């Protein structure tokens, strides 16, 4: 399917948009832009490894990506949850996960196995952070126009993507053993969700650029 073959190119859209508006990003958005950079580098490394170098198993790259992606996304939430959840708690959870991800690479799952354990664990962590952030937003009630707020789009992207990721990671090996056709359909659905994820990130970056421009216009 074309979606399965070219879905990874969607990651370049927020990369380019984010580069245009990077100077207008706050610290939280900078962490998320670095997440996008990591995603693009991971995709490129994987494609080069498979099609040019001839690597048959790219799972080590997946293990490293999950650790890096959860670190950067976790740091985004450490900024956004300030004043609602103690920063030491957020940072402590992130450090614990990163240590677990490294431990999983060498002592639980083989580097050449699909990183289902660390992937599912990281998804639970980020979904929890996402729910906490929506709770903070609702309790504080400071955001008047939710559609115009970049963090709403980003948080929605995280909640949808990592909720789906959790089930994908824990069921991946079972799906592979069920049937090839079913596994391909499941991967297609996951790729569609992945594409939606990066579209939502792109919208968030655009909203951030517009929001900053509106502030400058109002000051003028």
Describe the protein.
The structure is a single chain. By secondary structure, the protein is an all-alpha fold. Helix content is 82%, strand content 0%. It contains 8 helices and no strands. The protein is globular. Keywords: Membrane, Transmembrane, Transmembrane helix.
Q: Note the run of SSEs as H and E.
A: HHHHHHHH
The major β-sheet equals:
none
The helicity comes to over 70%
Poorly predicted runs are none
Tell me the strand percentage band: under 5%
Output mean pLDDT: 91
The number of helical segments is: 8
Structural class by sheet pairing and helices: mainly alpha
Counted up, domains total 1
Termini separation comes to 51 Å
CA radius of gyration: 18 Å
The total of beta strands comes to 0
Shape: globular
């Amino acid at each position: 399917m074309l979606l399965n073959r070219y879905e990874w190119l969607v990651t370049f859209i927020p990369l380019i948009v984010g580069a245009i508006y990077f100077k207008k990003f706050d610290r939280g958005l900078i962490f998320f832009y670095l997440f996008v950079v990591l995603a693009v580098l991971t995709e490129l490394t994987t494609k080069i490894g498979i099609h040019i170098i001839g690597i048959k198993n790219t799972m080590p790259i997946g293990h490293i990506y999950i650790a890096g992606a959860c670190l950067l996304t976790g740091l985004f939430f450490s900024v956004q949850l300030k004043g609602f959840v103690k920063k030491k708690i957020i940072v402590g959870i992130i450090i614990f996960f990163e240590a677990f991800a490294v431990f999983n690479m060498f002592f639980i799952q083989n580097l050449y196995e699909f990183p289902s354990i660390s992937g599912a664990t990281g998804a639970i962590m980020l979904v929890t952070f996402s729910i906490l952030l929506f709770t903070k937003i609702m309790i504080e009630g400071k955001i008047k126009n939710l559609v115009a707020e970049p963090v709403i789009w980003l948080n929605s992207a995280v909640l949808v993507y990592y909720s789906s990721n959790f089930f994908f990671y824990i069921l991946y090996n079972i799906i592979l053993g069920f049937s090839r056709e079913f596994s391909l359909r499941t991967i297609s659905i996951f790729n569609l969700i992945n594409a939606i994820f990066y579209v939502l990130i792109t919208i968030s970056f655009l909203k951030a650029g517009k929001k900053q421009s509106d502030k400058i216009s109002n000051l003028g």
